[in-house]
Amino acid sequence: MNDKVLFVFMTGRENMAKLLANIGMAGKIKSADPNITVEMIFLTPAVEALNKKQVIFRPIIDTINDAKKVGVKVVACEVAMKNVGLDKEDIEDGLVDEYAPIGGIYVLNKIKEGYEVLTI
């Protein structure tokens, strides 16, 4: 197994079960082997799920927080945020570790660094 994994989330409210399951899987992978680097990046429309003002997304935010507790890094694409009208103030403090100006470039750089990429 690769020692670096990047989950690229592009599914949103249209498939919340898939989103929840894969966020949970990211946390389980990191828990199973703390030496593995696990990151998640939220692109359009998935980034909308980071909105603390939308009650429907509470289970997703809780699952992200669980993954963060075991060391999973969370990244939000700023272009995607702009596309869905999401501001940093709409995101729970501490939920996002890094804001990527352009998510696609962030993903390409991770591929160059040898990350295994899982697109959801």
Structure description:
The protein has 120 residues and is an alpha/beta fold. Helices cover 38% and strands 20% of the residues. It is built from 4 helices and 5 strands, in the order E-H-E-H-E-H-E-H-E. The chain has a 5-stranded parallel β-sheet with strand order 4-3-2-1-5, sandwiched between helices. Helix 3 (78-84) links the parallel strand 3 (73-77) and strand 4. Helix 1 runs parallel beside helix 2. The relative contact order is 0.24. The model has no long low-confidence stretch (mean pLDDT 96).
What does the secondary structure layout of this molecule look like, with pairings?
Elements: E1 4-9, H1 16-32, E2 37-42, H2 58-69, E3 73-77, H3 78-84, E4 98-100, H4 103-112, E5 116-119
Parallel strand pairs: 1-2, 1-5, 2-3, 3-4
Helix pairs in contact: 1-2
Looking across the biggest beta sheet, what order are the strands in? 4-3-2-1-5
Q: What is the C-alpha radius of gyration, as a whole number of Å?
A: 13 Å
Percentage of residues in strands: 15-25%
Instruction: Give the helix proportion (percent range).
Output: 25-40%
Following the backbone from N to C, one meets helices and strands in this order, namely EHEHEHEHE
Main beta-sheet annotation: 5 strands, parallel
Average pLDDT rating: 96
Instruction: Report the count of strand segments.
Output: 5
State the end-to-end CA separation: 19 Å
Helical run tally:
4
Choose one word for the global shape: globular
Report the uncertain regions: none
Class from secondary-structure proportions: alpha/beta
